[in-house]
Design brief:
Elements lengths: L5 E3 L2 H14 L7 E4 L4 H12 L2 E3 L9 E8 L12 E7 L9 E5 L4 E3 L11
Parallel strand pairs: 1-7, 2-3, 2-4, 4-5, 5-6
Amino acid sequence: MSSKVQIVMSWKEFENASRAIVYLLKSHHVTSIYGIPRGGLPLAVKLSHLMNLKLIINEKKITDTTLVVDDIADTGRTLFPYKDYTTATIYYHPKSKIIPTVWIYEKANAWVVFPWENVSVAVV
């Protein structure tokens, strides 16, 4: 058994975090959304629906008004190429080299299991 602490996010918590991101982005002008594969894709699809914005699936189509999302900014390595864009994540680790424009939860030294990664999480 692993001694590492886990945070297991439910679909309801994902829904709440997504809606919080929408609220926090009210003052930012975004016209499309791009999700960094793989973890950013579920969030990008959800935000695309909530904000009624175009989902960009080709990285070459990103513009200055594209919101770039990922599930977590842990080290910041995957977000780094998008540092000049508006960014959003569900989790942010203070040791990340990139601070997302918007983030919901601060991650300490725990392993986060998102609902799309955990088949035992019930759909609510």
